[in-house]
Design brief:
single chain, alpha/beta, 4-stranded mixed β-sheet, 5 helices, 4 strands, globular, Aminotran_1_2 domain-containing protein, PyrdxlP-dep_Trfase_major
Length: 143
């Protein structure tokens, strides 16, 4: 299955890794913060990283304060935090088939009612979603 990108385990596509950038960032972290570079950090992420994210946003015309930025340890943590904040037991969420396993798990932990629609080479089959909207009150869609 050479042309399949598996979403089952949330494994990133390694061709997209910026090894040079990661190497530079690691060396910079070791140089700038040698005692804390590899220690557990704050839940919301490194203050320095959050400040740098805000600076990059400002360059693109988006303003934010570092206190408003949260850096997660990955998509699963981000999904969990979002689902805990917005999902009430019984809320209906629609996912595409197939979908990321961790998204299903976080929705299940939040006690959402999960429905699914097909996907094709263009993504979610929105006509199926439109049909569901005729009969279901849907709180959210995960794609």
């Amino acid at each position: 299955m050479e042309h399949v990108i598996s979403l089952a385990g949330g494994i990133p596509f390694d061709a997209l890794f910026d090894f040079e950038g990661l190497s530079i960032a690691t060396q910079q972290a070791i140089t700038e913060q040698p005692k804390s570079a590899f220690q557990y950090g704050l839940t919301e992420g490194s203050p320095l990283l959050r400040e740098r994210i805000c600076a990059l946003c400002a360059e693109r015309g988006v303003t934010a304060d570092a206190e408003e930025v949260m850096v997660t340890a990955g998509s699963q943590q981000a999904l969990d935090l979002v689902m805990r904040a917005i999902v009430n037991p019984g809320d209906v969420f629609v996912v595409e088939r197939p979908t990321y396993l961790a998204a299903l798990q976080t929705l299940e932990l939040a006690e959402a009612s999960i429905m699914s629609v097909s996907s094709d080479s263009d993504g979610m089959v929105v006509e199926e979603l439109a049909e569901l909207l005729k009969t279901q009150r849907i709180k959210g869609v995960y794609v």
